[in-house]
Amino acid sequence: MATKTKSEPEDQQVNFTKYEKARMIGSRALQLSMGAPFLLKFSDEELGKMKYDPIDIAIREFDEGVLPITVRRPKAMAK
């Protein structure tokens, strides 16, 4: 789903909060509605089922893990 960073172990899976997921999908849907190309190949039948809805396409891209969007989380400061 997200790209690995140097400090992130290989076996650790990234879990996004519902707010991060909503922001990523919303941002990608906006990009698609402005004319950005799809990151997955869809058949005409699949696009017809989704009714060319940018949100549905963005959700599908998120589920496949191809979104080029990263999340930066601040680390807690040590006292």
Detail the topology: elements first, then pairings.
Elements: H1 18-33, H2 44-50, H3 54-64
Helix pairs in contact: 1-3
Task: Name the descriptors.
79 residues; single chain
Task: Tell me about this structure.
- The N terminus is likely disordered.
- This protein has a domain of 47 residues: Eukaryotic RPB6 RNA polymerase subunit, CATH 3.90.940.
- The protein is built from 3 helices and no strands.
- By secondary structure, the chain is mainly alpha-helical.
- α1 packs across α3.
Number of helical stretches of at least 4 residues: 3
Order of helices and strands: HHH
Q: State the helicity in percent bands.
A: 40-55%
Class of the domain at 18-64 in CATH? Answer: Alpha Beta
Number of DSSP strand runs: 0
